[in-house]
Amino acid sequence: MRLSARLLAASALALSLAAPAFAQDAATIQRAETIRDAAMEQNIALDYVTQLTTRFGPRPAGSPSEQAAAAWAADYMRAHGFQNVRIEEFPLVGWERGEESAAIIGPRPQPLVVAALGHSPGTNGVIEAEVVRFTSLEDLNAAPAGSLAGKIAFVDAGQMIRMQDGAGYGPLTRIRSAGPGAAASKGAVAFIMRSVGSDEHRMPHTGTTRYIDGRVPLPGFALSAPDADQVSRLIEMGETVRLSLSSTAHTYETVSQNVVGEITGRTRPDEVIVLGSHMDSWDLGTGAIDDGAGGGITLAAAKAIAESGRRPARTIRVVLYGSEEVDQPNNTGNGGGAYLRGIGAAVDKHIIAGESDFGADRVFALGLPPGAQGSDFAKIAARVLYPIGVLPSQDPELHGGADIGPLAGAGVPVFGLNQDGTRYFDLHHTADDTLDKIDPAQMSQNVAAWAALVYLIADSDVDFRAMRPATAAAH
């Protein structure tokens, strides 16, 4: 069956559902469906991410490649009809990986594959020391003070659990954030951990660690899953394991930036809907799924709306955020925080924000702000999104993501178009995050979902803040 025939059949089924009492303009609903169907067939998302990853490759926060990519993206927006395009710079502490190596030197020499954790300091030569293994961050925190003096702390909490919503990531990424500080507090000279990923490839996942009192206290490394197994097995066999670690990583002063462009609202241009993703990436791959894809999806969705023949009432603002991936000494370097500081009191006119930062695989559920579940707007959105396989979630969307998190914290409602993350953490923060991992058909389904939903919001007077329950409003 051809795609258009499948859509017609699904639309007929969706329309058989109970119609909502809220009578949003029928022409708006029909236009949202037309935008959805057109986006399934053709959009610029793949073109954007292809050019971004091919022209600029990896885009570490604050690097010349991120800065050049931002300038190019602003021109790309202008060429595709966006208004009020601008680049907003903010200061940043950047980080360069340099060169790194690791090996088992006792009981017998073996090579290891590692990746330094983002913003870790270099080793200032070669560190050679005995490894002490822990199976959780809690066990490391419970170690006696001074018990790791002159040693390398190793946390192996086991393989990440593969889940559609990526819920297995959080329990392990906290080890990456807090582990180096915990190890330093016990006297360790370095920190290593099983890399945070759902794959078993000999390809470590990097990621940022946390500053403590303005510094990252010691060198930290992610150890590829097979190598983490190797070290753990040796220790379980009763061997005393010694490692050598080397890194020339260092920080430097630089700037990052947000790239902003708009489809200006027809009648209420001061009411803003933010579509967010991030421009920066880690340095091992080319940042195709994390998060070139998100930029392509949100840009293409906004352009699809602009090309529908009728601009919506409210302004749609696409923000390609800088510096999402890294921690900062003073917690002010994130692009989301810089955006919030820049808009000031205008935050009160931000209607809602959404973030695309989970690859390019299909959207399967819609999460709306607290109080919107079961609302008339939710019923209309469900009818429009059902034909492309998106179902309503009964769980409210509360936080959004790292980029729009500051807006959520300032009281802006957020939505989530939840993607299938089953394979996302096989690739995330690795050298395998490359363009060939994107499925164009699934990416088009993302664009269709974003375009249809955002149009429904942008050409309506729906007020998600007014729907918020009293407890959520107080929070």
Key terms:
Glucose Oxidase, domain 1, 15 helices, 475 residues, 2 domains, alpha/beta, elongated, Aminopeptidase, eight-stranded mixed β-sheet
SSE topology:
Elements: H1 3-15, H2 26-41, H3 45-56, H4 64-79, E1 83-96, E2 100-106, E3 110-112, E4 114-116, E5 126-134, H5 137-142, E6 152-155, H6 170-185, E7 190-194, E8 220-223, H7 225-236, E9 242-247, E10 250-263, E11 268-278, H8 288-306, E12 314-321, H9 335-343, E13 350-355, E14 363-367, H10 376-385, E15 391-392, H11 405-409, E16 414-419, H12 424-427, H13 440-458, H14 464-467, H15 470-474
Parallel strand pairs: 5-6, 6-7, 7-8, 11-12, 11-13, 13-16, 14-15
Antiparallel strand pairs: 1-10, 2-3, 2-9, 4-8, 5-9, 10-12, 14-16
Helix pairs in contact: 2-8, 2-13, 3-4, 3-8, 8-13
Largest sheet: 8 strands, mixed
Cα-to-Cα separation, first versus last residue? 48 Å
CATH topology of the largest domain: Aminopeptidase
CATH superfamily of the largest domain: Zn peptidases
Integer-rounded radius of gyration: 23 Å
Strand order of the largest sheet: 1-10-12-11-13-16-14-15
Beta percentage is 15-25%
- Secondary-structure-based class equals alpha/beta
The CATH class of the largest domain is identified as: Alpha Beta
Assign the CATH architecture of the largest domain: 3-Layer(aba) Sandwich
Q: Helix content range of the residues, please?
A: 25-40%
Count of DSSP H/I helices:
15
Q: Uncertain segments of ≥5 residues (pLDDT<50)?
A: 1-23
How many β strands by DSSP? 16
Please give a structural write-up:
Helix 3 (45-56) packs across helix 8 (288-306) and helix 8 crosses helix 13. With 475 residues, the protein is α/β, with parallel strands linked by helices. The chain has helices at 3-15, 26-41, 45-56, 64-79, 137-142, 170-185, 225-236, 288-306, 335-343, 376-385, 405-409, 424-427, 440-458, 464-467, 470-474, and strands at 83-96, 100-106, 110-112, 114-116, 126-134, 152-155, 190-194, 220-223, 242-247, 250-263, 268-278, 314-321, 350-355, 363-367, 391-392, 414-419. Mean pLDDT is 93; it is low at 1-23. The protein has two domains: 3-94 and 253-474, Aminopeptidase; 98-248, Glucose Oxidase, domain 1 (3-Layer(bba) Sandwich). The protein has 15 helices and 16 strands. Helix content is 35%, strand content 23%. Helix 10 links the parallel strand 14 (363-367) and strand 15 (391-392).
